[in-house]
Amino acid sequence: MNSSTESPCIGICSTVYGDDICRGCKRGYIEVIEWNRYTDQQKQVINQRLEQQMERVIAKFLIIEDAQKLKAQLDRVALRPPLYQNPYCWAHELLRLNATKIDNLGACGLRAIPPYHTLTINGLFTKIDDSLYSES
Fold this sequence. Notes:
This protein is mainly α. The protein has helices at residues 29-34, 40-58, 67-77, 87-98, 121-135; strands at 62-64, 110-112. It is built from five helices and two strands; from the N terminus they run ααβααβα.
């Protein structure tokens, strides 16, 4: 399957509980319901929108200092290859999967932007994810 048309679902869909926006993948409930009916082009548009949104939001919180180190850390913990090829998306996925186990963002090729550098890594991920949800 082409990664640009692969579903961004991460298996924690909140639309089944009545959310208009999924707290997992950040798609609207119609996009979740209709995904399998969409053309490849429609899927690509949605994935591009999500990727751009992720980069825009995460760049407010993190600086990517070493994309190769980040990708290596993600590859170590991810169950599947990353859907997006954007390092900011890799950062989100790494934090989603491993925020409670990361002691040092620098070891992952990341640096938190002030004032977020004082947050715990899990607190930083929560702030990022809440911002992504709000912008969806």
